[in-house]
Amino acid sequence: MRIRKIQLLVLAGAFAALCVYAATLAQREYTAFRAGTAWGVTEFQGLSSSKLAASHASNQDWLDGCLRAVTSIKGRLLYGESRVQLLENCTRVAGEITDASRSNAYAWYFQAYMALQNEADSDFNAALVKSYQYGPTEQWIAELRVPLAERGLASLNPQAQEGHQNDLGLLVQSRRGIGSIARRYVRDPGFRTRLTDVVETLPQPAQQQFLRALKVEVARFQNGGQ
What we know:
mainly alpha, 79% helix, 0% strand
């Protein structure tokens, strides 16, 4: 009888611990969801501990929220300690995610973005190369990386330059990315030579597809389109 009571107590204790653990995970998932969908600059500035959840979706929410905050008008207009606090907190979030999930290409992209903000060329290249390594064919991340690499073009090391070229080739051949690449080609004269070098290495059908998209963008640009 005594052994039976001990077993019941052990089971009850284990159940209670599991309940607490489940509640903690649920709270962290909810916090990540709120960060990704509703938090603004103020919330990320005051973030003392991110307490990341275990799921890939929650990590995505944290990164989405941070990216939205630092690129928002309010976030960009911050200066001094206020801006530093926002950047430091979001850099910490991205670092915790890559520490827990080394293959998260989106988190590495965000680290590269933050490093460029801080004019940390070495960190910028290292994080960008990691993003290329872990997400070489993820078009939606390539769409983010291309303008980032273009902004930091003068700082790119050979590995990052190669990754940037691969992203350009990927987007030129994709339905999703070809429009944005064609628009940049029309609006950015300095971009044209770099892209032409990439397009010339592609199969003929891909080159023709790009030329068709380019004609559409040229006509739109000439008609005053955005």
